[in-house]
Design a protein that fits this description.
about 0% strand, about 75% helix, 2 domains, mainly alpha
Length: about 100
């Protein structure tokens, strides 16, 4: 007898949560049971909670991690605010002159 194709329940729950963000875990469980998966509301709630925790960790690490794009993003924002690279260089030159005078 051939094996059934394995279904990743957690991924199915994440997909359903993304497709129906306004639904409760109970509603998501009912949708998935209708699709033939054996899940309950508690399991859906656990997957939803774990996804939120993981997202917070990623955000927290990204803001303090070495090599993050934070300084690069700030530099690009400065260049855009200055009106271009040439103007940004002029502003930095002026700042260096002021610093040397102090």
């Amino acid at each position: 007898m051939a094996k059934k194709a394995a279904v990743n329940k957690s991924q199915a729950i994440r997909d359903a949560l993304q497709a129906h963000p306004d639904k409760s875990p109970k509603d998501i469980a009912e949708i998935l049971v209708g699709q033939g998966l054996k899940v309950n509301a508690q399991y859906v709630s656990t997957i939803k909670s774990n996804a939120r925790v993981k997202a917070r960790r990623i955000v927290r690490r990204g803001t303090v991690a070495k090599g993050s794009m934070g300084p690069m993003a700030a530099a690009l924002a400065f260049i855009r605010a200055a009106g271009g690279l040439t103007q940004a260089k002029q502003i930095l030159g002026t700042i260096e002159e002021i610093q040397a005078a102090l």
